[in-house]
Amino acid sequence: MEDRMENKPIRLFLVTGFLGSGKTSFLQYTLTQIKDTRVGVIVNEFGRIGIDGKVLKSGDLKLVEINDGSIFCSCLKSGFVRTLAAFLEQPIDLLFVEASGMADPSNMRQLLDYLNATLARKPEVSRRYDYRGSVCILDAKRFMAYYDMFPAIESQIRQSEFIVLNKMDEVDAGTAGRHLKWLGEIRPDAAVIPAEYGEVPVRFFMDKVMAHPEAAPTTNSPETRPFSCIADMSGIYTVERIRELCTKLADSTLRVKGFFRTKDGYGRADCVCDYISVEPLEKSTAVHPDDLKLVIISKEDNGIEENVKELLQKAAE
User: Fold this and answer.
1) Of residues 257 and 6, which shows the higher confidence score?
2) Number of helices (H) and strands (E), helices first, in the chain?
3) How far is Cα 179 from Cα 225, in angstroms, rounded to an integer?
4) 304-315 and 239-249 are packed helices; what angle lies between their axes, rounded to 10 degrees?
């Protein structure tokens, strides 16, 4: 068992997709299908605190969060490479990397080449990664609206071998057909799978995805990163008032997500632009007081932080 762990390569999958496309739902569903596999997950978020990692973490899953930027940007890529190196010494067989919604993964190969060059000077680390490629999750209803605005979306698609056209329940057959045709033209070598709620059988991609797109410079840089801020949610709120708050923020934000306290327990906000999802959490869901935050992401600093503070004061019980 020890020899197998030390010598067998770790299969590595990158999971990309714009803000709110369903990456975490895809990973949640995937993890339920491979319960007998030793798995690690790296979750990257633009906000200074992580939300998705708290949703994914369970049981013996080995999970590391890298927040406050993109793992492909110069600001975080060295930390990402160190985290990849550390996972090589963990008893896992499979590693998923959930990139942030604004991530441009074009330099993934370059980062892995740098990692291998570094490991060549460390003979005590014998394991390596078998990079299987990138799975891109797209929101069928919204991704085309942002395609021309955010270059990272095109890079995510072009760097992927397997594309999940998610949230198909939110579009009609004509729109779905146009999206599938367009994706077939822009990325003809990739498999494109329609899905709802991120539910894709692992047999569709686990042994079929093979990395082959050309490496290229990433567009992620400190200059292109979106503005983000964090709102303290330690007060008492109602689901209805937080839903109203998120609706008012829809025109000025790209993403609002996080946890808040209610009289009866806790709630979760998970919003993308005009898509508003604010629901109570099940009683059994464990939420630590430090988790009571909202992460707000917008394209630029347009006074959103002060606006959020004012709205929260009005929303508090």
Assistant:
1) 257
2) 10, 12
3) 27
4) 160
